[in-house]
Amino acid sequence: MSKKQFKTESKKLLDLMIHSIYTHREIFLRELISNASDAIDKRYYAAMQSGETGVDKEQFEIRLEPNKAERTLTITDNGCGMNAAELEQNLGTIAKSGTQAFRAEHENAEDIDIIGKFGVGFYAAFMVAKKVTVYSHKEGEDAAVWESEGEDGYTVKPCSYEPVGTKIVLTLKDDGDEESYGEFLEPYRLESLVKKYSDYIRYPIRMQVERSRKKEDSDEYETIVEDKTLNSRVPLWHKNKSEITKEEYAQFYRDAFHDFEEPISTLHINTEGMLSYTALLYIPKRPPFDFNSKDYKRGLKLYANGVMIMEHCEELLPEYFGFVQGLVDSPDLSLNISREMLQHDRQLSAIANNLKKKILSELLRMQREERENYETFFKAFGRTLKFGVYDKFGANKDFLKDTLLFWSRKEDKPVTLKEYVDAMPEAQKHINYAAGDTLAQVKKLPQAERVADMGYDILCLIEDVDEFALRILESYQEKPFKSVSDPDLDLNTEDEKKEMEKRAEEAKPLLTRMKNALGDKVLDVRLTDRLKSAAACLTGDEGMSVEMFKVLRSMPTGATLPITFHLELNPDHPVYAKLSTLDDEQLKEYAFLLLGQAKLIAGLPLDDPAAFTEAILKLM
Ligand code: ADP
Ligand code: MG
Q1: What is the CB < 6 Å shell around ligand 1?
Q2: Nearest residue (CA) to ligand 1, atom 21
Q3: What is the mean pLDDT of the chain?
Q4: Tell me, what CATH number does 180's domain have?
Q5: FRET label pair with 576: which of 9, 104, 296, 564, CA 20 to 30 Å apart?
Q6: Ligand nearest 123 Cα, by number?
Q7: Same domain for 58 and 190?
Q8: Distance CA 455, CA 425 (A)
């Protein structure tokens, strides 16, 4: 059988592993043990799901077997195993996000130092082995063996490996020096590596060790061989908080949730009493690659007394906190609980209720005490929170409103709603906002100029969900939200308003002529006092801003959406003075141009760009 080549991505990672510097090499064991433990989890979980009763949790184990004569280290598990296709799929290509992202971030060899810190997976074996042989047997299928000596590819063949599970044989490198990797054949060294990296693994990690014992009724000693369990098997979350280091929390996170980065925040919650449970929650730094796809599975792992009973328990996390990773362990839950039962489980919803409050207060703590971290977090997941505000007709808006950040035009940085309100001048009645596609566009919005001139800050909204979220919030600390494009901005004194009404009355014939010229391209043409240096702008109608129009129109059913905006003219602009001197033909042209440029500034496409350009050229 000919050798198959690794996929390009895998090859690069493989390279990195083979040539990694010596000090990090010991982590290969952690990676292989973590895979073995995952595989046992999978087998046990599948057995429980299918109602198989013959599976005894006590039978599971991971075994280490150093062989000095052969220079091999063998790691065996009785987990789910892999068939030939899975060996090919899982070990011939990098499938997992964590590893892939790791590779993307650390393309060049200078980053090699980072290896020790991350979960780099199966290929870590090549840091210490010149040859890796994986025998695997999946229940009810034919066994197969995968073998590779690194860079020049791998083979997959049928074999006759009997037990269900996987056996990985590492033939250690020698680098011309017999002793160079011999340390990984020393039982004491292996034991200390297990203690250091894999102590919390819940399945026993066993190894045969030699011990000398005094013979009975004699002074002689004999050497006996016995099984020793190397790990304490206490799950991390069952340990005392004070005994867990930050690094241990982070390592567990990377292993269990396949992230390659440290979490931005960790919450370890212990509750006793009516409701007793332990929760270990992590807020990731970045969204997983599939976060916005429907493949993303929200939820926490659910354990009953240290045994996992569900991988993604959605009932434990509201959708708006769907980015949180972690687990809940409760002694009071039944092992064979079904999804339907869980949905109605009072205890579970009480836990969920507690957790969401803890998550909220952790987010607000971060916002106060670690602002930079919070802004990083909000960049990654702010959108999810804003959807949470909007979703379910705003049912959770009060709960979530203080988590929000929006870009402040004045401060030129993100601010909370509270910070905005606290900085409002006495005379300002509203929380003003402007919406657009980009920050640069919003800042230059003609409507924003006068509001800003009055010394009022403006929240710049650039995500499609933003304005929907604010509209459903309605107000914050009794200050209503108001778009700078709102028909009634209410910036003027009574006298100014009267003056404006007078001018509008005088302008009526002109405005009617313009509206006739534009037909149903606008709702109407009217005067505005919101503009300063611009001649015209588009504003939305009650309940529907131009930005919302854009969002809705981009949706599949949006093409037929009727036009719902007004063209507003600045009566103090020189162009306006000119309008009344024009004949109908010229006025039509001017109206068409004013509408076109207002559309461009608002980020709307022109109906007929060629005609627009032609009209400009003609004027020039
Ligand atoms: P990850 O553990 O992040 O998925 P790895 O590179 O460590 O990435 O492993 C790749 C895949 O190979 C695993 O996802 C798993 O499907 C499979 N695998 C590795 N080791 C074992 C094992 N001992 N038993 C069963 N499957 C395994
Ligand atoms: Mg792994």
Answers
A1: 31, 35-36, 38-39, 77, 79-80, 82, 90-91, 96, 98-99, 121-122, 166, 258
A2: 35
A3: 87
A4: 3.30.565.10
A5: 564
A6: 1
A7: yes
A8: 8
pTM: 0.72
Q: What's the rounded Cα separation, in Å, for the pair 261 and 81?
A: 28
Residue 587 banded pLDDT, cuts 50, 70, 90: very high
Domain membership of residue 397 (yes or no) is no
pLDDT tens readout for residues 283-297: 999 998 889 888 899
* Residue that is written with structure tokens 């892939």 in the block: 100
The stretches of 74-150 forming alpha helices (DSSP H) are 84-92, 97-105
Give the structural domain span for 479.
405-491
Domain assignment present for 3: no
Interval 181-209: pLDDT, tens? 889 999 999 999 998 888 878 899 999 99
Separation of 539 CA from ligand 2 center, angstroms?
A: 55
Q: Do 367 and 256 belong together in one domain?
A: yes
- What are the CA-CA distances from residue 353 to residues 281, 345, 475 (Å)? 14, 12, 26
Report how many domains make up the chain.
Answer: 4
Of 4 and 360, the one with more pLDDT: 360
9, containing H or E segment: helix 8-18
The reported pLDDT for the residue numbered 112 is 47
DSSP assignment string, 514-543: HHHHHGGGSS-EEE-SS-SS-SEEEEEBTT
In this structure, the answer to whether residues 483 and 611 fall within a common structural domain is: no
Statement: residue 128 has pLDDT above 50: yes
The preferred substitution site among 122, 203, 260 for testing ligand 1, maximizing ligand atoms within 8 Å of CB, is: 122
